[in-house]
Amino acid sequence: MPVEVSRAAYSGRAAEYIDLLGSMSSVHPSDLQIVSTWASDVHGDIIDAGCGPGHWTNFLMQQGLIARGIDHVPEFIAHATNAFPSADFAPENLDSINAGTNSVGGVLAWYSLIHYAPDEIQVPLHEFSRVLKPGGTLLVGFFEGPAVEKFEHAVTPAYRWPVDAISAELGRAGFDVVESHVRKTAGQRPQAAISARRRDPR
Fold it and tell me: What is the 3-state secondary structure (H, E, C) of 22-45?
């Protein structure tokens, strides 16, 4: 999906999204555990890629980590900057991150890749691989399903992925999967998370 389309869709519903999902009180306990465990093993700065309202960036900083949030939706960055003034936020696309090669220890992509089509997802994954140090880690949160398929997300169309399919895409981008988690709750879309480590290209 073109960045402009996704940006416009989220800009139009930013206030609603922030009210519903823009705080740690809306986070599922298992997601909190997954992100906390992953973050505790990161060595170096973290980029919260697709930070949305900024609550995860702030949470990471509260854990004593150096983190900054990036997002392509200006309303999210404005809110995050006001809500969490001690954190660093910037308007950036995941396809072109303002960070040096091999410069960060971790990238959090928490449901920020869900609007990428299968033929597009390698672009941000390769960008994550570029900015991560060898041995750095990536945590991806996404909607899980038995096949890669498009669905009508509340804001703009998104994709669900089998864990094996996302794992294969991560492998193509230079990552080794460390672990995966799937949560299935009645009445909700299945959720999943994968942590992966960037290979040393040498």
Answer: CCHHHCCHHHHHHHHHHHCCCCCC
Position of tokens 């992925």? 161
Structurally, the chain folds into a number of domains equal to 1
pLDDT at 188: 82
What pLDDT is recorded for position 25?
87
Q: How far, in Å, CA of 202 to CA of 193, rounded?
A: 28
Q: Specify whether the CB–CB gap between 83 and 53 falls below 8 A.
A: yes
> CATH number, domain at 52?
3.40.50.150
CA distances from 83 to 88, 89, 136, 198, 202 (A): 11, 11, 29, 32, 42
Q: Are strands 191-198 and 132-144 parallel, antiparallel or unpaired?
A: antiparallel
Domain range enclosing 35: 3-154+162-198
Strands of 72-112 (E only): list them: 88-91, 104-110
Give the strand pairing for 149-151 and 158-161.
Answer: antiparallel
Residues in the chain: 202
Contact (Cβ atoms closer than 8 angstroms) between residue 109 and residue 56: no
pTM for this predicted structure: 0.91
Tokens matching residue 135 = 């041995």
The pLDDT tens digits of the residues spanning 98-141 come to 999 999 999 999 999 999 999 999 999 999 999 999 999 999 99
Q: 174-199: per-residue pLDDT in tens?
A: 999 999 999 988 878 899 999 999 99
- Nearest in space to 192 (alpha carbons), one of 120, 139, 135: 139
